[in-house]
Design a protein that fits this description.
The complex is a heterodimer of chains A (174) and B (190). Chain A has 9 helices and no strands. With 174 residues, chain A is an all-alpha fold. The chains are: A mainly alpha (174), B mainly alpha (190). Chains A and B meet through helix 1, helix 2, helix 3, helix 6 and helix 7 of A and helix 1, helix 2, helix 4 and helix 7 of B.
Chain lengths: 174, 190
């Protein structure tokens, strides 16, 4: 078990290296600005608390993403109870109509559209797409999510196709 | 570390962030508050149960007839049964730290299933144990006071109690249906 100073040091390292990714993650889980700020603070508190038990069996990056995704997923499922929003799987998102060129061309509009797409996804698929967007490779995504390599590959293939169609990148990149 | 291999990844990674970082003192304060809240919640459950049991023990020792003693004895046994059942079925668990997403979702689903069983079976572990106390109380007082006015009073009390039982049961069944829907949705999330 880490002593207090180690815990604080690990948190400093995690917040410095992954703080921006955590902010983006919170944005993908909560559209409301006030609730998003609360969620981000909840993630930071959970991360700091968890680092007391960090034993280095996985990388700090994997640990940070695991803790953050679990806190965010609990948040989504709690909100789901009160808001009654229906969540979709990647396979259902593949059936969405394609975006038009104007939608895809505007950068800020494209980011809003991407956020809305992510916010409709079920927790596990949301974890995969966010990890992919953060540039993590399939092995790292598998380690964070607990999915098999084959499952991660299938989901990434679907994500690439869906993003290509929605953001007019000229087709599949698999 | 993070490689943007396509424009959407770049769009995602380049979005402006505020650079929020929390001071360690603030994290400590909030973590302490969280732990105190959990301890407080558990303590409240036990204190409330102990007060109820204590109250019935007081009634039991101060009662002068066998009927009242039997009634209060049955209520005490029911309360103890409820406390033990609540401890076994109802204690919320905390998710282990740093587990992967699938394990986290399975833990969350197991917690929902536990909550589902608690509310679905509310009749058996919460309401039914209280019935013998009310039955003995009603029959005993009806025998002790064989007057229409006393019987009418007992009948009114039983109707009120039965109505409360039905209301508690229906609210719990409603909660069970909501939890069941959430569990089904989680099943599709993997």
């Amino acid at each position: 078990m880490a002593v207090a100073s180690e815990q604080d040091g690990l948190y400093e390292e995690a917040a410095t290296n992954y703080g921006a990714a955590l902010e983006r993650l919170a944005r993908a889980y909560e559209a409301d600005a006030d609730l998003r700020r609360d969620l981000l603070q909840e993630i930071h508190v959970a991360l700091w608390r968890s680092l007391d038990r960090f034993e280095g069996r996985c990388s700090l990056r994997t640990w940070v993403y695991r803790v953050a995704h679990n806190v965010a997923a609990s948040h989504v499922l709690r909100q789901r109870r009160t808001r009654g929003q229906e969540l979709l799987g990647l396979e259902e998102l593949e059936n969405l109509p394609d975006a038009n060129a104007h939608d895809a061309g505007d950068r800020s509009h494209a980011l809003d559209r991407l956020l809305r797409l992510i916010q409709t996804l079920k927790p596990l698929d949301r974890h995969v797409i966010l990890s992919y967007l953060e540039g993590l490779d399939a092995a790292a995504i598998g380690e964070i999510t607990g999915l098999s390599a084959g499952n991660v590959a299938t989901k990434i293939h679907r994500i690439k196709n869906m993003l290509a169609r929605q953001f007019q990148q000229g087709g599949s990149e698999s | 570390m993070n490689v943007a291999e396509n424009p959407v990844q770049k769009l995602w990674q380049d979005q402006p962030v505020e650079g929020i970082k929390m001071p360690v003192e603030e994290l400590r304060r909030r973590a302490g508050k969280f732990e105190r809240r959990i301890r407080g919640r558990n303590l409240r459950e036990y204190v409330a149960s102990l007060i109820a049991v204590g109250l019935f023990v007081y009634f039991l020792v101060s009662a002068h007839d066998w009927l009242s003693r039997t009634t209060y004895g049955l209520f005490i046994a029911a309360m103890l049964w409820i406390v033990v059942a609540l401890h076994h079925k109802g204690s919320a668990k905390t998710m282990p730290e740093g587990v992967d997403t699938l394990t986290g979702l399975r833990f969350y689903r197991a917690e929902l299933e536990r909550q589902y069983r608690v509310v679905r079976d509310v009749w058996w572990w919460y309401l039914a144990p209280l019935v013998p106390g009310f039955v003995v109380y009603t029959i005993g007082h009806a025998i002790q006071s064989p007057r229409p006015a006393a019987w009418a009073g007992l009948a009114f009390m039983d109707v009120v109690v039965a109505g409360m039982f039905v209301w508690i049961w229906r609210m719990n069944q409603k909660a069970a249906r909501c939890l069941e829907r959430m569990i089904q949705e989680l099943n599709g999330a993997e």
